[in-house]
Amino acid sequence: MRYQTFGRHSGLRVSEYVLGTANFGSAPAAAGLEGSRAIFESFVGAGGTTIDVSNIYQDGEAETVLGDLLGRERDDYVVITKYTGSRSAQVRPGTTGNSRKTMIRSLEESLRRLRTDYVDVFMPHFPDGVTPLPEILAGFEDLIRAGKIRYGGVSNFPAWRVAGAAVRSELSGHRPLVGIQTEYSLAERSAERELLPMAQAHGLGVVLYSPLAGGLLTGKYRHGEQGRLSARAAADGTAGEGGEQRTAVLDAVLAVADEIGTGPVQVALAWLRQRAARAQTSMIPIVGPRTPAHLAGYLDALNVELDAHHYQLLDEVSAIRLGAPHEDVAGALAHGVDGDRSLLDDPLIPVI
Q: Quick check: helix, strand or coil at residue 81?
């Protein structure tokens, strides 16, 4: 496994996969305690160092299990954890959200479960709709100075809020945000509209969750297997693969896998690694196995390289409409409003 720094504002070295621990726990649908240990040890054995968790995963048990596994080698790993929500049956206003109060309380509880005195990256899991970002940034500053977190980031926030926070932290002289977390895969490329260009422009690392689109890109639902998407479909009354384009994407993934003699998981992750290699900031996917066999498949993808025409096929079938103003600007540039662009070098850093 290879390593890179997390964004341009830190020297924090992260592995090219992040181990997702949402399945770490003893519940029937989770990996089990022994299974969690086997997954963790296989990931570490392959060179993995970076681990993602949250205070709500398995009602907090995921952090407890991870804390047991980190042990005395805790400093060898980069631990990302998140706060905002609660899985309590009786949620009270003072125990959720992103306020400084909730941030500190949640972090203290996470540190106890993780059996450590600090986490490497701390993030609000979702916007709560009320807490101003200056309050979140001030909370990060206090926790960094106290030595309880090393860096701050945000998860699932819209690009305009993250950009504002990035500029505000730079102008105030506070520690800058180092990264974001967002969904991204062949079946969900919405982040290309605003989030990924914003992260590149501001030098933020990007942690990508659901790189297999909730199991869609494995092809398992076509074989009648159950998973996150089947549960969601039953809850909201939908059926199928979520639309014609997602079906076409899966068809293409399966066709490429059949052509080169590998699996759809390896194809989908190889495409994602190629996109990350072309980015102007670090983009690292979270792999969230429920079994050691799942992890083995994800690790196999590290050795898969597709041909140029495969990448082109997958790019085209999964492409999204960027919409306004992106398409209008692209059209204007094509008609020469910026002179002869063939005479210009591509900028190393996107214009902001």
A: strand
Q: Which of 17, 57, 209, 298 is catalytic?
A: 57
Homologous superfamily of 3-343: NADP-dependent oxidoreductase domain (3.20.20.100)
One-character DSSP codes across 166-220: HHHHHHHTSPPP-EEEEE-BTTB-GGGTTHHHHHHHHT-EEEEE-TTGGGGGGTG
Domains of the chain, by residue range, sit at 3-343
pLDDT in tens, the chain (352 residues): 999 999 999 999 999 999 999 999 999 999 999 999 999 999 999 999 999 999 999 999 999 999 999 999 999 999 999 999 876 767 777 778 999 999 999 999 999 999 999 999 999 999 999 999 999 999 999 999 999 999 999 999 999 999 999 999 888 888 999 999 999 999 999 999 999 999 999 999 999 999 999 999 999 888 766 666 655 554 455 456 889 999 999 999 999 999 999 999 999 999 999 999 988 889 999 999 999 999 999 999 999 999 999 999 999 999 999 888 887 776 666 666 655 555 555 555 554 4
Residue 107 phi/psi, 5-degree rounding, is: -60, -45
| Active-site residue, 57 included | yes
